[in-house]
Design brief:
This protein is an alpha/beta fold and 335 residues long. Helix content is 46%, strand content 12%. The chain has a 7-stranded parallel sheet with strand order 1-4-5-6-7-8-9. A two-stranded antiparallel ribbon has the order 2-3. It binds coproporphyrinogen III.
């Protein structure tokens, strides 16, 4: 069993720097693209044998040190009874978005039987994996933003409007999602996930002040509730350089950062917690010499053999060559 990822997550010393990639199980891999010719994303994620196959592909092909469950953050709203469509080259679309307090009545409480396919995928994976398995969920803000906007947004105007103008609806939605996330991640851990990551992909659009008022208490509630599960809890968002000091008030083992902050600066803020990141995914489209120089610059800033997990600063871009990813893993392992 290769446990470098878990050791690093817990802040311990490792011989080899552990590597995994957000969105490693997906469009940059030929096996996945082939499966997608036959099945849509939701079918793939909801069919345990196929989902397990997709999760395993990067382990074999890239030699990464952790697997991530093949799922999507929108599976949770679906389990709560909210229909979601994943639209090609757009993303998640919700035809009846959340706009009034009445809309909260459309949510069913979280029940494990509505994600039993994920529990089965996890058990299948644990039967074959030699590296740890990461479970995940979207964070309440990021999920709420899809639910309120109805489609991907780059300004999150309606989400912020709801936050400012409908405090009761905002609080109701955030509380409902937080409870569901606790149940959802608890179920994944009980089925065998050995670490969990919460993706707050879009929370960096908020000011630190708004983050503290409208989001932080809910993040604190979720992470504290998961503590008793005793697996590393990872907290990731993009554009969060200005929020990292507030992230310190959320109980977790690992903080993931994107490339808009240097590792040394992030480490100075997060102190004793483990750090994950943060190569710009676009770097992977450049010549190898550029990639190598970027990694060397990153690694000159911190102690990479204690409390550090190598990753990109966000998901692998679809046009990334998997052979370059493989070469990068080898390069990091050689450091
Ligand atoms: O390899 C992995 O990381 C595991 C699988 C995974 C998917 N989604 C599968 C997927 C993970 C971890 C996610 C998380 C996710 N989903 C996030 C948080 C991480 C992030 O990137 O910020 C978000 C915001 C979503 C919502 C979502 N799902 C979007 C925006 C899209 C479409 C655009 C895109 O980035 O692909 C999806 C669809 C989706 N989820 C695909 C995959 C492999 C692409 C489906 C396809 O076209 O084949």
């Amino acid at each position: 069993m290769n446990d470098a990822f878990l050791l690093a997550a817990r802040g311990e010393h490792v011989e080899k720097i552990p590597v995994w990639f957000m969105r490693q199980a997906g469009r940059s891999l030929p096996g996945y693209r082939k499966l997608r010719e036959k099945y849509d994303l939701l079918t793939l994620t909801q069919t345990p044998e196929l989902a397990a196959q997709v999760s395993l592909e990067p382990i074999e092909r890239l030699d990464v040190d952790a697997a991530i469950l093949f799922a999507d953050i929108m599976l949770l709203p679906i389990a709560l009874g909210i229909p979601v469509r994943i639209v090609e080259s757009v993303g998640p679309v919700i035809d009846e978005p959340v706009r009034t307090i009445e809309d909260l009545k459309r949510f069913k409480p979280f029940a494990r039987e509505n994600i039993s396919y994920l529990e089965r995928t996890i058990r299948l994976l644990r039967g074959t994996l030699q590296v740890p398995l990461i479970g995940f969920s979207g964070a309440p803000f990021t999920l709420a933003s899809y639910l309120i906007e109805g489609a991907p947004s780059r300004t999150w105007t309606r989400t912020k409007q709801c936050m400012y103008e409908s405090p009761e609806l905002w609080r109701g939605l955030m509380e409902l999602l937080s409870e569901a996330i606790i149940g959802y991640l608890g179920a994944q851990i009980d089925a065998g996930a050995q670490a969990v990551q919460i993706f707050d992909s879009w929370v960096g659009c908020l000011s630190p002040e708004d983050y503290r008022i409208y989001v932080l208490p809910h993040m604190q509630r979720i992470f504290s509730a998961l503590k008793e599960k005793n697996v590393p809890r990872m907290h990731f968002g993009t554009n969060t350089a200005g929020l990292l000091a507030d992230f310190l008030n959320v109980d977790c083992e690992v903080i993931g950062v994107d490339w808009r902050i240097e590792l040394a600066a992030a480490k100075r803020i997060i102190g004793g917690k483990s750090l994950q990141g943060n190569l710009d995914p676009a770097t992977m489209l450049a010549d190898w010499s550029v990639i190598q120089a970027s990694v060397d610059r990153m690694f000159s800033q911190i102690d990479t053999h204690q409390g550090y997990i190598f990753n990109l600063g966000h998901g692998v871009l679809p046009e990334t060559n998997d052979l370059t990813l493989r070469k990068l893993v080898e390069y990091v392992h050689g450091k």
